[in-house]
Write a structure and sequence with these properties.
Oligomer: heterodimer
Shape of chain B: flat
Strand order of the largest sheet of chain A: 6-7-8-3-9-10
Structural class of chain A: alpha/beta
Largest sheet of chain A: 6 strands, mixed
CATH superfamily of chain A: P-loop containing nucleotide triphosphate hydrolases
Number of helices of chain A: 12
Distance between the termini of chain B: 47 Å
Radius of gyration of chain A: 20 Å
Number of strands of chain B: 2
Largest interface: A-B, 40 and 29 residues
CATH topology of chain A: Rossmann fold
Largest sheet of chain B: 2 strands, antiparallel
Shape of chain A: globular
Strand content of chain A: 15-25%
Number of domains of chain B: 2
Strand order of the largest sheet of chain B: 1-2
CATH architecture of chain A: 3-Layer(aba) Sandwich
Number of helices of chain B: 10
Order of helices and strands of chain A: EEEHEEHEHHHHEHEHEEHHHH
Radius of gyration of chain B: 24 Å
Number of strands of chain A: 10
């Protein structure tokens, strides 16, 4: 991974502090012949600030993907409002502006790549926005470097590994220079190595490029890297806070069929056995350090 | 296995032909095919054969690739030539046995037809060997652009071609997975007659179709998220540009065409 490459982002223009704001959002699936209308979000309110790294957690069917799809107007709320950088997502005239502000990366990398060559795929977004060709080259190269895929720019996507394809998909979004990227379970279809590559790329976006990231996941270890964790359960917000605080409520998480990071779980077992281990352990490194200190 | 199939059979390279603008290549190929049909005596046809062989050598694609292309059509060439030989009537009889008569004109005609077919296959495989699928679709989009006046959805057609090319390997891989999954459930794909084997394909095609529709839906959402709104106002990363070598090739071709027309007048036409 090339972590040190930075893209000069122009955030000097006046941007509201709050990037994405869901205000009391309700959503129901329209009724079909077989089923009555089904409400899946029951009044969700979330504010996401510029530069934040937020993880959205919840078990299958909790409504977390539905929330994500409200963040760039793929879905529109049936009640309440969603604002992206001050723009109402219900306003169709703002659709392109909303989508270039909030990019979205999906679960299956294969179904996001359009072109037969990596760099042409990354250029797809800028091409749609009408970026002049001479500026586009730099956008594409910078985006590919930011995810460490620059050497593969002339390759065919189908010859890449899952993690590499997903990084190309991320580059395709970065090339549009969004302020915010929503990741909808980006690692769910990848092997451990691919997961690691994608998580490193996401870390780089947040830490070095200043992009606001919303990560939807059911891997607790990935959520532990975030600044803030939001837990959704059956269309309601269950809890939110710093990962350390949220994951310390192990019993509450268990009750809602959610795991805690493995390191946190191990630390808790050890503490229960009487070892002197702090209750805010999140990563394997922290856990190892805590165990070393406890032994001494 | 089946995922080894390459589409368009593009052979990357740096030859003069590779570097030509794909639009120019398509135009020149069309001109050459027209002149293959215009060449009517041994001088002009000989010149066309020479021209095609020269471009084949210039492309620096291994000759066996061209032979592979020819192998697929040798039966068609043979059969067309044979029919021409047997059915065309003329004045000079070369050979007669009972009701079978072969005329001199028929021999020429069948020889020319065979040579024409071979040349067309050579020149069109040269286009696909030396042009990447992306360049090819871009060139087709640009060349067909005037049809937009008649409301032909040129951009949409090119986009469909690109997506189709992009997904062929993905779907092949998926087919292989489904085949293996069905085999693991005891499906027998190899034995039996044509009807039995066709029936065995149904449990492969149905999952493939369902997953393709799901893919299409997801891809459409992803394209929406990347602000795709059709061809209007789109720019391109790699803009096709005519360079000096394209002008040179075009002028050279113009001269060659003149030459072929002149050679046609040197001797009487052997074919219609």
């Amino acid at each position: 991974m090339e972590d040190n490459i930075t893209i000069q982002y122009d955030h000097t223009e006046e941007s509201p502090e709050i990037q994405i704001s869901l205000q009391n959002v309700f959503y129901e699936y329209e009724s079909t012949d077989e089923s009555p209308p089904k409400e899946v979000l029951h009044g969700i309110s979330i504010d996401i600030r510029q530069g934040e790294f937020v993880a959205l957690l919840g078990h299958n069917g909790s409504g977390k993907s539905t929330i994500a799809k409200h963040m760039n107007a793929i879905l529109l709320p049936s009640g309440g409002k969603v604002f992206v950088a001050g723009m109402d997502t219900a306003d169709e005239a703002l659709l392109t502006d909303i989508r270039r502000t909030v990019g979205m990366v999906f679960q299956n990398p294969d179904n996001q790549l359009v072109a037969t060559i990596v760099e042409e795929d990354v250029a797809f977004g800028p091409e749609n926005l009408g970026v002049p060709s001479d500026e586009m080259r730099k956008l594409v190269d910078d985006a590919l470097k930011a995810v460490g895929m620059y050497e593969y720019r002339r390759h065919a996507p189908h010859k890449l590994s899952g993690g590499q394809k997903q990084r190309v998909a991320i580059a395709g979004i970065i090339a549009m220079r969004p302020k915010c990227i929503v990741f909808d379970e980006p690692t769910a279809m990848l092997d451990p190595r691919g997961r690691q590559e994608v998580m490193d790329a996401i870390d780089n976006l947040v830490r070095n490029l200043g992009i606001t990231v919303i990560l939807i996941t059911h891997y607790m270890d990935e959520a532990a890297r975030a600044d803030r964790v939001i837990i959704v359960n059956d269309g309601n917000l269950l809890t939110e806070g710093k990962p350390k605080d949220v994951f310390s409520h192990i019993d509450m998480l268990r009750e809602h069929h959610l795991d805690v990071p493995q390191a946190t779980e191990l630390a808790q077992y050890l503490r229960a056995m009487g070892y002197d281990i702090p209750d805010d352990v999140l990563t394997p490194e922290e856990c190892a350090r805590a165990i070393m200190n406890a032994r001494r | 296995m089946i995922s080894d199939i390459t589409i368009g059979q593009f052979m990357p390279g740096r030859s003069f032909i590779h570097k030509l603008d794909p639009r120019m290549k398509i135009i020149l190929m069309t001109v050459i095919i027209v002149f293959i049909f215009l060449a009517k005596n041994l001088f002009s046809m000989g010149a066309m054969v020479g021209l095609v062989i020269l471009t084949v050598i210039l492309s620096r694609v291994p000759l066996r690739m061209y032979f592979k292309g020819l192998k697929a059509i040798w039966f068609l060439v043979f059969f067309t030539a044979l029919l021409n030989m047997l059915y065309i009537r003329g004045e000079h009889i070369v050979f007669q046995y009972r009701s079978l008569t072969i005329y001199e004109e028929a021999l020429w005609q069948s020889g020319f037809v065979a040579v024409r077919l071979v040349l067309i296959v050579l020149i069109s495989s040269m286009l696909t060997y030396t042009t990447s699928p992306t360049d090819l679709t871009a060139a087709i989009e640009r060349l067909l652009a005037p049809l937009k006046l008649f409301r032909v959805p040129v951009h949409e057609l090119a986009m469909m071609m690109t997506i189709a090319l992009r997904f062929i390997p993905t779907l092949l891989e998926e087919t292989e997975k489904i085949m293996n999954a069905q085999k693991a459930r005891g499906a027998d794909l190899e034995s039996g007659g044509i009807i039995k084997r066709a029936k065995a394909l149904i449990p492969i095609l149905i999952p493939l179709f369902i997953s393709s529709f799901r893919r299409a839906f997801e891809l459409a959402t992803a394209m929406d998220c990347r602000c795709y709104t059709g061809g209007k106002g789109r720019t391109r990363l790699n803009v096709l540009k005519y360079r000096f070598r394209d002008v040179f090739a075009f002028l050279l071709m113009g001269g060659i065409c003149e030459g072929i027309l002149y050679l046609n007048t040197l001797a009487p036409s052997l074919v219609r």
